[in-house]
């Protein structure tokens, strides 16, 4: 259906679309593409001057040097059935890989390396303990048996009935029970059960800590397994030419399908009448109406407390939002180098992603410091060698790299803590690569505040849209509910990382929001649509007699 344009004159009517999408991050663009594919007229409104959200690249370090401002490596994008079904290679996206996927450096300068070549990975972990190579192969074969069903279940609304049944069929009753135990195992315990040496254990635990969980927390084993096995089979690819190339492909596809994108138009209010979202109003006063749906690719507290407003929300939801937990703050450093990093351990040189700063106990100590509000003295650091991964990122013979680590949120604006943490990261690199500092030709530090200034969804430097801990995942994301994109406001859907399945560049929240909007528009599954509405009413519509809604100023993100 074509959008109705505003007429000129004193009685001009607001433009009207089938759907308005707030935010042109990758999830918002995924949702817009799926709705446009269904024949809906779609308008995407983006506050920044360029689309992309946390998927953007720039020449921050100088002409000829391409830096990813936020996210960079995309194993989940390569694995995601949501993005795969959009066929973005037909719209210009090209992936690039480093020779090796990941290297984890131990404090004593040993390294374990994961490669898409299974033999190389097996040999690397076997060097830490004989027999671990075969154990790693066994783990990969288990992934080959069930991995696509796990991914299909992960990227669908909760509960993923069809994908879950497929997984159960593949496992059988006996293995299903064992898989259920595995799903709640801490990654430290899982590594101890499966491997004799630290090599394979560190590959699993280090990838698990791409979340904000500690190695001893339930659920970290399956997260580490998912990330490690995706890396083993698909790698940690990057878009050739910069992360923005992924967004360019999504925008080209959207426009080819008839969708529209307007940048530099921040939305200040979702228009709610009679418990239903009818459109939006921009900061400039422009009203855009939505016949069928408003989808919001924004942080969950921002949607509810700023764009909708407490007056339109049930008391139970407001009480739940008071318990919403962000993930830790992020400190990111970017460097242009005159040559490759001179790693003392040569095996690290061809890895796209490098973990450094901690062995297994060090990972636990790092997570404990974040939990208790202390600055980690030996911060676990994730580093990207971008020119090693994609030769277009900088001139021949040079290298673009970045590294990030986390700080507890109580230190996110402490200048001394930020300075000391940046120094600690550089000292880690220099310790493992003497002469690193001599190669630096430019350096830019992104603090938690500067990350949010560049992307309003990264509240105080939180990059996952809320903690990934088990108490705020699945049916508890972003608050206790259905684990779906639906909200208590009819026709309003959360399509950002605060919704299930959470942070990462995979399009899951955007895909789920688009499917929910189609579902409730009556285009398919009217019985299931009615069931979801009844469940939402039961969860939120009744007064919470034991709770008093908190003042908005006390809620997260305010």
* Name of the CATH first level of the largest domain: Alpha Beta
* Shape designation: globular
Return the CATH architecture of the largest domain: 2-Layer Sandwich
Mean pLDDT over the full residue set = 92
Q: What do we call the CATH topology of the largest domain? A: Guanine Nucleotide Dissociation Inhibitor, domain 2
Number of continuous helical runs: 18
Strands, total number: 18
Report, as a whole number of angstroms, the end-to-end distance.
Answer: 38 Å
**Uncertain segments:** 543-555
Radius of gyration: 23 Å
- Count of folded domains: 3
Q: Percent of residues in helical segments?
A: 25-40%
Strand content: 15-25%
Q: What structural category arises from helix and sheet content?
A: alpha/beta
CATH superfamily heading of the largest domain? Guanine Nucleotide Dissociation Inhibitor, domain 2
| Largest sheet entry | 7 strands, mixed
Q: What would your notes on this structure say?
A:
The protein has 558 residues and is of the alpha/beta class. The chain has 3 domains: 15-47 and 264-323 and 466-554, FAD/NAD(P)-binding domain, CATH 3.50.50.60; 61-84 and 95-116 and 235-239 and 328-463, Guanine Nucleotide Dissociation Inhibitor, domain 2; 130-195 and 202-231, no CATH class. It has 18 helices and 18 strands. The chain has helices at 26-37, 75-79, 81-84, 118-126, 132-154, 161-183, 187-194, 198-208, 220-234, 244-256, 300-308, 315-322, 360-372, 386-389, 415-432, 448-454, 508-520, 526-541; strands spanning 15-22, 42-46, 57-58, 67-68, 95-96, 100-105, 111-114, 238-239, 260-263, 267-273, 276-282, 287-296, 329-337, 351-356, 381-385, 399-407, 440-446, 492-494. The strands form 4 sheets. Strands 1, 2, 9, 10, 11, 12 and 18 form a 7-stranded mixed beta sheet that branches. A 7-stranded mixed beta sheet has the order 7-6-14-15-16-13-17, sandwiched between helices. A two-stranded antiparallel ribbon has the order 3-4. Helix 4 packs across helix 5, helix 5 (132-154) packs across helix 9 and helix 8 (198-208) packs across helix 9.
């Amino acid at each position: 259906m074509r959008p109705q344009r505003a007429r000129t004159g004193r009685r001009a009517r607001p433009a009207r679309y089938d759907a308005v999408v707030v935010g042109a991050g990758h999830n918002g663009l995924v949702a817009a593409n799926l709705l446009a594919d269904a024949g809906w007229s779609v308008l995407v409104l983006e506050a920044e001057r360029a689309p992309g959200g946390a998927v953007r690249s720039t020449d921050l370090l100088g002409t000829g040097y391409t830096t990813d401002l936020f996210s960079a490596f995309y194993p989940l994008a390569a694995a995601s059935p949501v993005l795969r079904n959009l066929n973005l290679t037909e719209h210009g996206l090209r992936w690039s890989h480093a020779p090796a996927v990941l290297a984890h450096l131990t404090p004593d300068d040993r390294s374990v390396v994961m490669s898409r070549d299974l033999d190389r990975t097996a040999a690397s972990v076997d060097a830490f303990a004989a027999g671990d190579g075969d154990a790693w192969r066994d783990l990969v074969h288990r992934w080959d048996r069930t991995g696509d069903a796990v991914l299909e279940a992960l990227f669908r609304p909760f509960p993923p009935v069809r994908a879950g049944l497929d997984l159960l069929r593949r496992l059988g009753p006996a293995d299903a029970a064992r898989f259920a135990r595995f799903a709640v195992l801490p990654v430290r315990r899982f590594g101890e059960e499966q491997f004799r040496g630290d090599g394979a254990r560190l590959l699993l635990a280090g990838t698990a800590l791409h979340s904000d969980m500690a190695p001893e927390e339930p659920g970290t084993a399956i997260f580490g397994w998912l990330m490690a096995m995706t890396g083993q089979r698909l790698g940690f690819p990057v878009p050739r030419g910069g992360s923005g190339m992924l967004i360019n492909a999504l925008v080209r596809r959207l426009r080819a399908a008839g969708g529209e994108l307007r940048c530099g138009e921040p939305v200040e209010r979702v228009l709610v009448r009679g418990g239903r979202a009818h459109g939006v109003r921009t900061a400039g006063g422009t009203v855009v109406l939505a016949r069928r749906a408003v989808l919001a690719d924004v942080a969950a507290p921002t949607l509810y407390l700023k764009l909708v407003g407490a007056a339109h929300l049930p008391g139970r939801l407001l009480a739940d939002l008071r318990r919403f937990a962000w993930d830790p703050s992020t400190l990111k450093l970017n460097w242009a180098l005159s040559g490759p990093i001179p790693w003392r351990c040569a095996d690290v040189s061809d890895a796209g992603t490098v973990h450094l700063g901690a062995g297994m106990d060090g990972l636990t100590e790092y997570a404990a410091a974040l939990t208790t509000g202390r600055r980690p003295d030996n911060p676990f650091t994730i580093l990207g060698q971008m020119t090693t991964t994609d030769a277009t990122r900088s001139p021949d013979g040079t290298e673009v790299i970045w590294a990030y680590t986390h700080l507890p949120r109580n230190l996110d604006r402490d200048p001394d803590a930020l300075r000391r943490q940046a120094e600690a990261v550089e000292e880690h690199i220099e310790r493992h690569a003497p002469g690193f500092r001599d190669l630096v030709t430019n350096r830019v530090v992104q603090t938690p505040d500067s990350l949010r200034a560049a992307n309003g969804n990264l509240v105080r430097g939180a990059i996952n849209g809320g903690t990934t801990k088990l108490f705020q995942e699945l049916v508890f994301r972003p608050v206790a509910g259905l684990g779906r994109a639906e909200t208590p406001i009819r026709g309003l859907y959360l399509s950002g990382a605060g919704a299930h399945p959470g942070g990462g560049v995979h399009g899951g929240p955007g895909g789920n929001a688009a499917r929910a909007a189609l579902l409730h528009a009556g285009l398919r599954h009217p019985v299931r649509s009615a069931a979801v509405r009844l469940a939402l009413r039961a969860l939120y519509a009744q007064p919470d007699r034991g709770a008093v809604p908190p003042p908005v100023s006390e809620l997260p993100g305010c």
